[in-house]
Amino acid sequence: MAFRLPESPSGEAAKALGAYYTDQTIAGFLVRWAIRTPNDSVLDPSFGGGVFLQAAVQRLEQLGGNPRNQIFGVEIDPQAHARTRLVLEHSGIRPSNLILGDFFDLLPGQIPSLTAVVGNPPFIRYQRFTGEGRARAMARASSEGLALSMLSSSWAPFLVHSVAMLCGGGRLGMVIPMELGHAAYARPLLAYLARSFDQIAFLTFRKKLFPSLSQDTLLLLAEGKGGKTAHFHLLDLEKPSDLNNLDPAFERQSIEAQALTSGRQRIIEYFLPPKARALYRELSHSQQTQRLGELADVGIGYVTGNNSFFHLSPWQVAKWGISSRYLKPAVRRARGLSGLRFTQSDWEGGLLRGDSGYLLHITGKNDLPLELQAYLAYGESEGTHQAHKCRVRDPWYAVPYVYQPDAFLTYMSGEYPRLVANEAHVVAPNSLHILRLRSTSPLGAAGLACLWQTSLTRLSAEIEGHALGGGMLKVEPREAEKVVLAAPNLPLDALDALLAELDSLLRIGRAEAAQDLADDIILIQGLGLTRAEQRLLRSAANVLKERRSAR
């Protein structure tokens, strides 16, 4: 009778367990890399469909080892454990070595000493990663001297506990979210890995490992447990199948470990040609540039809990007779932004498309007009007051943190993030980031929008943001504040004239011409860059944009 490994779960089951099974090519490579002698012992701490363990059986048999006694696995899902165990028993693994339970309940010493840990840790975002399981996971990380942020997803403590299971000199080969290279909560984890191993390599791919997921991934290869200062390396491959022909002594480019663990650099910078990377680093530390956070505070817009109820069109305002006292003009989505300035005319035009409207903004609960009380009663009849964000407010209809910003920034972008001055003095929900100028900023919001148009800033946004599925670039507020802008030696009237031209070009869809003009005035005339340097920045920004777009 033939036995086949089970397929990966899907939908809510996959999200709840963080279970996305790895294909045989990737699993086979990690196992070949990690298991090097017939005496090696290996653990998959979340074996799921068993692909890593089956590959380990084949590897140890080739080397002359004993798979029955040298392979171990843990799986928390009873159904996956039962299905996979049946197959793996017939592959020669001792049944008692396939443990049903929570990996965080397994302590070093409860199974024989391990020379290798391989696998694909469950990926559960912190919002779902709650309860006793999270508490145990964080306690295990803490016992290793690592205090992880509460924003950590499940894979982070999983990785730490995997390291703890290894003997001295051991190896760790795992599929890890790309967040390891850019998330703030992952920096202490990178530093922990650097303290724990002699060599660490990141294998990245220009084609995604998991095409159906928005989460990007890489392969982490860490060896020589017990080292005090690891050397970091990167290898960027075209596609997973390239692993089949990869020489064990593959060439890798060095990464500055301290710069990566401190957050001064990101892995994505190493996807750039060396000359472009060097120029960007020089400019990012130059007195001729500044970070967006030096000029403005970046935050998210307000959260209503139910946009369709709290955002009203003019005809809804008229229908319910709601006083302007309880309304604030709002732009609802990035689609409503076109040029460098969002004007009253833009807001009025957006009313017809539904991109603009009014926010229902009530700051108290007493003496509300009868018309407004009727609208709120309608909302309660529709269950609006039971939505999570509404349920935790008192009163439920008082939307907090409503600010009139100086500018808006798109945080999910296909082409590039857009920064637009708020000349209409409207508010915005969390579909947009909001910018409030610092008192020390020498520029107005429109001037800031001008500086945002250069190739330098587009490259910086690609580096500081992170790619999602469908080729989208996401820029979180703290990431946006790190984006580099030029500080050109230009008179303000020249910047005003440039603003008018850029705004006109963008409104007729000539974004590339606007970028050309901004580069000429700001980078070449203002900063004194050569044409070759300007082209290098433009090309580098396109390299990263095309990389994420292709994914």
Automatic annotation (TrEMBL):
Keywords: Methyltransferase, S-adenosyl-L-methionine, Transferase. This is Modification methylase Eco57IB. It holds the Pfam family N6_Mtase. It comes from Meiothermus hypogaeus. Its EC number is 2.1.1.72. Signal peptide: none annotated. Residues 267-523 form the Type II methyltransferase M.Eco57I C-terminal domain. InterPro entries: DNA_methylase_A-5 (IPR003356), M_Eco57I_C (IPR054520), N4_N6_ade-DNA_methylase (IPR050953), SAM-dependent_MTases_sf (IPR029063). Residues 12-177 form the DNA methylase adenine-specific domain. SUPFAM superfamilies: S-adenosyl-L-methionine-dependent methyltransferases. The lineage of its organism: Bacteria, Thermotogati, Deinococcota, Deinococci, Thermales. GO terms for biological process: methylation. One of its GO terms (molecular function) is site-specific DNA-methyltransferase (adenine-specific) activity.
